[in-house]
Amino acid sequence: MGKILFKDFKVFNGTEFIDAREVLVDGERVSAIGNSLDSTDAEIIEGYGKILSPGFVDLHAHFRDPGGEWNEDISSGARAGAAGGFTTLVAMPNTKPAISEPSLVEYVLSHGRAAGASRILPSGCVSKNREGKEMAELLKMAEAGAVFFTDDGAPIATSSLFRLALIYTGKDHPRIMEHPEEMSLFKGGQVHEGKVSALSGLKGIPAASEEIDVARGIALARETCGRVHFTHLSSAGALGLIKQAKKEGLDVTCDTTFHHLTLNENAVINSGYNSRYKVNPPLRSKEDQAALWEGMLDGTIDAIVSDHAPWHMDEKDEPFQDAPFGIASLECAAAVIIDFKNKNYPEVPVEMILRKMTSSPASLLTEKWQALGKIEEGSPADITIIDEERTRIVDCSEWNSKARCCPWEGIALTGWPVMTFVEGRKIWQDNEDL
Amino acid sequence: MNAMPSEIGQIVWRHRNVIDVDCFTREELYFLLDQARHMENVMDRPIKKVPVLRGKMAVNLFFENSTRTRVSFELAEKMLSADVVNWSVSGSSHAKGETMRDTAWTLEAMGADIVVMRHGAVGSAQYLASKLKRAIVLNAGDGTHAHPTQALLDLYTAWKHLGNLEGKKIALVGDVLHSRVARSDIIAFKTIGCDVVLSGPPTMMPREIDSLGCRYEKDPRKAVQDADMVYLLRIQKERQQDGLFPSVDEYHRWWGADADLMKYARPGALAMHPGPINRGVEISSEVADGHQSVILEQVRSGVAIRMALLYLCGGGAR
Amino acid sequence: MTVLREKAKLMSSDDLNRVIKRIAHEMVEQNKGTENMILVGIHRRGVYLARRLQKIIEEVEGTKVPCGELDITLYRDDLTMLFEQPMVHSTRMPQDISGKNIYLVDDVLYTGRTVRAALEALVDLGRPSSVKLAVIIDRGHRELPIHADMCGKNVPTSKNEVIEVKVTELDGKDEVVICERDAQ
Ligand SMILES: [Zn+2]
Questions:
Q1: What ipTM score was computed for the predicted complex, to two decimals?
Q2: For the whole prediction, is pTM greater than 0.80?
Q3: CB pairs below 8 Å between B and C: how many?
Q4: What is residue A1's predicted lDDT score, i.e. its pLDDT?
Q5: Nearest residue of B to residue A269, measured between CA atoms
Q6: What's the CATH code of the domain at C130?
């Protein structure tokens, strides 16, 4: 592979915008950062002031592969990620069969590599077959390449299993990612317990459900000195607990999603109960949404994830109550958040958002991947180019993902990724852009 | 007896589908009540039929069993001379095999002009309407969400008895949480200017009652105090299995309507119920069969109001 | 958009009242008295005209002829061609119309479709022994085999013209004017 010189870019190094306007990639790695770099033999890409960012890292995506490939497979998911500016995606293990043994971890890795798009990193289940009973072969899965352990789709079934897994993995193996939910409060739940449940009569999922499970996880993290990552946080209460725990010095981290940051229960109501807004955890109140932004600003939230949950139209295009949970967002997530921030939080610098899509989530991956999410000399050349001026209408029919509906369908958004590179190789480009 | 603003202005009726009552303004509600009055007149004629929907095909698509609502719609359709097809789909929607999308397109291919649907899922009527290009949708109940024609017939019944409803008080007692009737009634009666108060077991109330825009009184006597209408909601006994109330007997003692509870209402207050009634649960026989009860009139009103809606929404060119 | 431009006055208030009086007399004459007679006004102006006829007959004959009102909206044959459904008005008959002589009253007779609808509506209400039609203006252009038994004035018109019969009860004054539709 040759050299590429990125010229005239606003360079975001994963933490901040730096003075340098040029980045030189040699083969798979960044070889130099500066100004007036030597361009001999290099292909030159002119930026005209666009942003050059480390490729986005998504800690939470569902690819339905194996077992539900008509909804999405690893290949379509990896290409969807590429088109959304993501260079690294962590695949959730709640597939059929669930990823709970080393050979399946390898399956995900090898199919991800074969896709030739975004880097797919597997996560493994905490419990065998994701049944919530016995601990899975966590260390063998770690060896095979799993970067998280999670029973996502559901919380770890019992506190004793949770506790054992924390003690067993300790600080030298992948983190435990917890889907925070108290299942007895879910039963038949459809929407946030609040205005939307009152108006529709749909069974509510109270915010307390999330809060209770986060409290459990924090207590266990404290007791075991373990590391817990809480995913797709949606409520102010749970966020408050994590803020406290962080202050206390516990090794707990968390993420929220693009949709929880940009939508709330009113979207469900105003749509007349359109299934495209049906997701778990549910879109919560306006106040919860505001609390999430506060958590972004005060550092409680470490990462933004997609929780990309694709469904074939035949499954998702149903009346609200009959449709499955899940929002597919990879291909528009970056634009969704940039556009929303610019319209609603113009004073927040875009770096703050980008940090939580690059260096910050990358730091939660395993040792091997600690160089991701940064633009430094010698780091892997995972690069996403963002055009802050670009306006495009979301059109799911053009997606690489097999999902064909999302909350932003038909909406014009401004601020899109336009080119994506993994290890120096261009994996996607917005054809209308250049 | 009808305190209608004496000259109802000619209203441009812009509604095609009726998903819930929240789409109507107060003027439109009064207009609809007035039109229902003329429709009820048709029911009293020797020949109970007018040719206004001649040549139109109405399909009553029922995914849940509800003979009452279906028969009421069917009568209304027949009195307006529509061709009526009853299509019942039994079993849960997941077991039905055909997606609602396909059902919708099938209906349209068959030439349906009007689809009346009852379905167990919230959002199903809106969904169906979004899939139909030509036919209109009248929601006959979508899960716990809405039952607009019930609310309109309740309004019509109350209006016939009480005249101008502005400032009148209605107490809705029972399982508000799972009741599409309550949700649509709250909107309808509030829109027309009534004061709406809820009562029932706290476990059967939405957590955020405020968002419904009405007051809650745990004690039904406080809710019914000075009410002009006492509306008893049907209690589904299986809610007891969900653990929402400990026993039917306890429910009846606390929230069941008997003559004693009715004493707290204004003299001559109406006792209303969407039917079918559970005697001895949410309503005692002395109230159900007493002089204040308008339960059977509600049934008659249902046909009239459905005729009015069918005429206004379902006639005309597409 | 079209606007109506008034072209000429066909009848003044006095003219109109004279015509109504004449029709009242013709009715009683044709009916040979007021027995079995029911006046039925077609909504909306026909209803007010029927009431005036009732009053005049009462003054002359000393008996109050029963007077009903008929709304033909639900019997119109053009509903499926309209995008907005017209408002339904009340239909009220003072008594059973079976075996009675019905005198239908309307303001203008034009294509005959309104009268056709009125006849269908009447038949659904009972079996009158006869039905006669009285109108203030017959402007021609019939599309159905219908004629007026009593008529105030025959006015040949073009299809571009509109006849407006105004009554005090609705319009604040009595008169008949002919207007022309101006396309704009
Ligand atoms: Zn989850």
A1: 0.90
A2: yes
A3: 60
A4: 64
A5: B123
A6: 3.40.50.2020
